[in-house]
Amino acid sequence: MIRVFIAQHPAEAHFFKGVLDTAGIESEIRHESLFGASGGVPVNEARPELWVLDDARAAEAAALLRQQGPTGLEASRLWRCASCGELVEAQFTACWKCGADAPV
Ligand SMILES: [Zn+2]
Q: Can you tell me the mean pLDDT for 37-45?
């Protein structure tokens, strides 16, 4: 499983899960109950997370979220290296495997 998104609140997590459901990509939301337990006050540790069950579809899911997200950016925690095809976490600006630059 690969985490593809950290939502600001549960409604956002469910919205993006719906996007993936529509595309036939299985996903699940984690930490939603923690959010509720925090009394509705979002704290970093309690952000709902969206995980894609099938690792092979994580890049596809991230691309979909990027398209859907008005704020886009946080939606995708992964990018796929155009050179070697490796999945790379968003904070890296170059592929850890082959050193190719991240797509703009
Ligand atoms: Zn690469």
A: 52
Distance of CA 76 to the CA centre of its chain: 5
* pLDDT band (50, 70, 90) for residue 51: very high
Q: Tell me the CATH number of domain 2-79, given options 2.40.50, 3.30.160, 3.40.50, 3.30.70.
A: 3.30.70
For residue 48, report the distance from its CA to the centre of ligand 1, in Å: 30
- Helix-then-strand count for the chain, H and E: 3, 5
**What are the structural domain ranges in the chain?**
2-79
87 C-alpha to center of ligand 1: Å? 8
| Spacing, Cα 65 to ligand 1 middle (Å) | 22
Q: Are 50 and 9 in contact (CB under 8 A)?
A: no
Is pTM beyond 0.70? Reply is no
